[in-house]
Amino acid sequence: MAGIIEGPLSKWTNVVKGWQYRWFVLDDNAGLFSYYTSKEKMTRGVRRGCIRLKGAIVGIDDEDDTTFTVTVDMKVFHLQAKDAEEREKWIRGLEDTILRHAQLQRRLDPNHPTPTMQDFDKKLTETDSYLQILIDQVKALELRITQGNDDQEKMRLCSIRDRANEMLESIKHTIVLLQIAKNTTHPVNGVQVAAPISFFQSSPSESLKITNNQQPKINLTNEVVSVIASMEDVPVQTGIELGAECVELRGVNIECTDSVRQSPANSLEQPGFYSQRPLALEIPETSYSSSDDEDFFDASENMGQSPTLPTPSTKTLDELESSQRNQSSVSIDYDALYEDSDEDDLGSMESHGSVVTHLLSQVKLGMDLTKVVLPTFILERRSLLEMYADFFAHPDIFVGIADFTEPRDRIVQVVRWFLSAFHAGRRSEVAKKPYNPIIGETFRCWWDVNKEKPATESIVTDGPVPWCDVNQLTFVAEQVSHHPPVSAFYAEHYGKRISFCAHIWTKSKFLGLSIGVHHIGQGCVSLLDYDEEYIITFPNAYGRSILTVPWVELGGSVSITCAKTGYSASVEFLTKPFYGGKKNRVTAEILQPDRKPFVAISGEWNGAMIAKWADGKTEEFVNVNAMPIVQKRVRPVAEQEEFESRRLWREVTLGLKFNDIDLATKSKSSLEHRQREEARIRKEANEKWETKLFSLVGDNWIYDKPLVKRLAASGAQH
User: Which CATH code for domain 357-703?
Assistant: First the structure.
């Protein structure tokens, strides 16, 4: 792309004014994306704001196909096209301009050697040699086809030959086009060889005339600005024009006529004001908006400054705890901090504008966020390992799977438990992120499934929680890997002879206006009395509206399969459409062994779900709001081992609870610093990390002492 694109877009102004119509002009040469309150204001040159595209990042929302963002100079501009097709044109133009100016910057960098015309000729010669080799191979293939007797083999060889001939034609055309490009960018004796008119979207008369007292007047298309074309050993111009802010005239007189411009379709119209403007456009030092058109990222007066980030503390947690206690004579009840499930509202992220925009300026679309350090204030007061325990917030539904005698009823109960397993993991409407577990971290808890049933003296001493009895559901989790971050967890009910083993690799990506967390892995429900295993996958999670009030939704396809019975289920977590629609929608079908569905389920995974059976009967399948959450029981922090989650993160939790962000950040940094140091020591000693409770078997992390293995060893297996 070269030239100018212009047209209307809606721009987000602020919460009060919302989206407002603006006329945008993308100047590819100058690397500017300017906007005006109207097309008429554009013709008069009354610019409302300007976005410098050098170093900019274009972001998109994976669910909304009309909005996109441009992040640059510590600012985020939110824009909306009329439809997906028009957004795609703008994004393509913006990314082309950003890439061109990034390449130009590299070319002007003296530390990077610039390719010369000799390099170009060498590569072209190499390409021609490879072409000849390919031609010889095709000839050999033809000979083999002629001499062959097997018709099937001949057909296969003919197919290969046809593909090879197509490749040959493509390479030939490429070499011809490269030669034309060479002649265009490096004219022989200063005279440009004419290129086919189809190469350009304008008539030959629309050109940039360059005059010089020592050189004849040369007409050049706007595809290439060859001000220094007659210099010896000129670097190859890879289709990139010098922007107005980069051109050094050196005595060359430039006479402007109507430049070659792209002819956009639909609402991207031909330029008006820019046809008469001088070539050298004023380049602002930074992107800006009019003072009376404040954008919603301008929440902090220190927006232009990078936030001061605390350096990692070398204090141990015990030293931090001692320091805290020296400041107060009141003992700290860490257990109460964790049992208090009320999370403080983040409010709008605008109040943290400088930190958030600084963070966003360092990430790119599709970038893996695993190694990105997030601000402490967005953390939830618990570890990710503890959050996984919320899959069993309704333990009676889970252990009830084993009570059904028919395989059809068991798959229905598995789906019922699965659909009710996600709502308890979200403590509030506002999205917060649990602590990233450190390698070797563990978490244990248990549930009293039937409170009316007294605890027995039958303690399962070899179970995941060795002080629990046969009528309690027990849970243990371990962070088994740091890169990639993999968590493994296991739950069992000894009395019901049911267990669940799973591992999840969380892979986070920046999606522009959202953050996507892909849950890679699977879980397995084991019913020992029936020798059945139900393999389950997990939905993805998305953090939406990360620049305002963030919220979480689930999305993606999930499968539940039982190889022994042949029953299966498919579940779809539906993300909210940009316009209209509801949040947290889910649909599911449970299939018979012949793959015919016998029940369809729909509703909200954090509310009521309705089942419609094949016989026409409709009933409530499960309603998570009508069922109380059974609180998990956790050993007091004072009795926990050093690497158990609540003990490990206690000071971070204390700081977040009482809004002491400095304490929380120092404690978090101390843990991360210790983890890095231990990893460094292991690497220097060439030692491999040894897990405590789980082992990698094939692609799955399996609990070392599952119920089925222990029962088999004791001879008690059914």
Answer: 2.40.160.120
